[in-house]
Design a protein that fits this description.
255 residues, mainly alpha, Serine Threonine Protein Phosphatase 5, Tetratricopeptide repeat
């Protein structure tokens, strides 16, 4: 109904806006219906491609359209195309918050495409920009930036682990954990993510099973706080990690 109305009025901006909303509806449907998931994603993408052609004069809506296309290509595993869509959106975006989010997406695509050095540059530039801008922001913006800093440090540490820089990664994970706890509270799911990474690092590279066990137990507590049943993936992964550490420690005591 809305799209037909705006087609008659030749209001292309409103047509584009309605198409983005329609794409959102299809996207929501695919997340609730596994049987027709691909069909709904295809329909969402068709709406977004039509919308993109109508929004040259409205940067905010064009960025939203390109960002949403990037998300769908990302779900399809077409990371090169997703990267291109995010980069297109970056050329149009005006506000700082959306720009930062797009840069995060771009870095994530570099990781997915196995170009870690390019991702590292983007993450580090973002971290430097956030750290230098805190003096001129509101209290709420500083809180938001603090949470982003924690995520960035975690992502940077993950790359350093893969590059064999384990001591540096350990320092960065610890700082990420501290910042995430301040920004979102000790029971925030983001905190659990870094606890798991610290646990894995101690269990493997540093061969400190007791410390790893402690981190995994903390992650399990957070996972249980945020779910209603014990079959959740995060809970099962934490239990598996704890079991492995306990078996290893038991084996060490017996030898």
């Amino acid at each position: 109904m809305s799209l037909t109305y705006f087609e008659k009025t030749k209001n292309t901006i409103q047509q584009g806006h309605v198409l983005i909303s329609l794409a959102g509806w299809y996207f929501f449907q695919q997340s609730n219906n596994d049987d027709n998931q691909q069909k709904h994603l295809n329909m969402a993408m068709d709406c977004l491609k039509q919308s993109e052609l109508m929004l040259d004069s409205n940067p905010a809506l064009l960025v939203k359209c390109l960002d949403n296309q990037g998300l769908i290509y990302r779900l399809w595993g077409e990371y090169n195309i997703a990267l291109d869509k995010y980069q297109q959106a970056l050329q149009v975006v005006i506000d700082k918050e959306t720009k930062s989010a797009l840069l995060m997406h771009i870095a994530d695509m570099y990781v997915a495409l196995e170009v870690p050095n390019d991702a590292l540059i983007v993450y580090q530039d973002l971290l430097m920009e956030i750290s230098s801008s805190n003096t001129n922001t509101t209290s709420q913006e500083q809180d938001d930036d603090l949470g982003i800093r924690g995520v960035l440090l975690h992502n940077i540490a993950t790359i350093h682990v893969d590059q064999g820089e384990h001591e540096l990664a350990l320092e960065e994970f610890r700082e990420a954990l501290r910042i995430k706890q301040i920004a979102g509270g000790e029971h925030n799911p983001e905190v659990a993510k870094t606890l798991n990474s610290l646990g894995a690092l101690h269990a493997g590279v540093f061969n400190d099973k007791l410390q790893a066990l402690d981190y995994f137990k903390q992650a399990l507590l957070i996972a249980r706080i945020h779910v209603d049943n014990n079959n959740d993936t995060d809970i099962m992964n934490a239990l598996q990690n704890i079991s492995l550490m306990e078996q290893d420690l038991y084996g060490e005591r017996q030898s």
